[in-house]
């Protein structure tokens, strides 16, 4: 009986080690998440200063990969303190009530050398939608570099309420771009 328990414990430890071997640690100093949109038809790039990404990726088995990304909505930096305060307000991100936007993958499929198709649920300001986007991945020394762009419609997530629903000032189209550097 003791031997069976010992074998079971060793097996569980092996499974835990194998699972953790695929988990990658994000390097926030080398990673970025930005939102690009048009205001009065002029492109604007805004960087999110705080985010985290949990990625389980094995290049040999990309279909078994998983990813979760959390972005602190109040960390959007438009390059001006007053604008930053404005986008945190209720009409925009409502960062007090919804401090994080999240993406949770439901499927990651290989799409050729260094390419993946990612599907998952994006939740911003309490509104969720299924999204799919292409992703590139490449090895850089001990790191894996994930890059992609996810086009969304801001009004789907109630970003810009009241008078800001009018898309003549701030366009509905937003592209979330990311460059995530991660290592085991």
UniProtKB/TrEMBL annotation:
Entry keyword set: Signal
Keyword rRNA-binding attributed: no
Domain named Lipid/polyisoprenoid-binding YceI-like: residues: 23-183
SMART domains assigned: YceI (SM00867)
Membrane spanning stretches: none
Keyword check for Signal: yes
Signal peptide from the UniProt entry: 1-21
Superkingdom of this protein's organism: Bacteria
The protein's name: YceI family protein
Organism: Duganella callida
């Amino acid at each position: 009986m003791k031997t069976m328990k010992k074998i079971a414990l060793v097996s569980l430890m092996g499974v835990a080690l194998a699972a953790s071997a695929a988990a990658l640690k994000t390097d926030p100093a080398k990673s970025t998440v930005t939102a690009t949109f048009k205001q009065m038809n002029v492109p604007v790039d805004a960087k999110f200063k705080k985010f985290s990404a949990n990625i389980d990726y094995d290049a040999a088995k990309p279909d078994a990969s998983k990813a979760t990304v959390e972005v602190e909505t109040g960390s959007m930096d438009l390059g001006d303190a007053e604008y930053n305060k404005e986008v945190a307000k209720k009409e925009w991100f409502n960062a007090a009530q919804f401090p994080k936007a999240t993406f949770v993958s439901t499927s990651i499929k290989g799409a050729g050398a260094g390419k993946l198709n990612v599907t998952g649920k994006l939740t911003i300001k309490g509104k969720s939608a299924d999204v799919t986007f292409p992703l590139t991945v490449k090895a850089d020394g001990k790191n894996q570099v994930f890059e992609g762009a996810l086009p969304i419609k801001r009004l789907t997530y109630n970003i810009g309420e009241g008078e800001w629903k009018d898309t003549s000032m701030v366009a509905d189209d937003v592209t979330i771009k990311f460059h995530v550097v991660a290592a085991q």
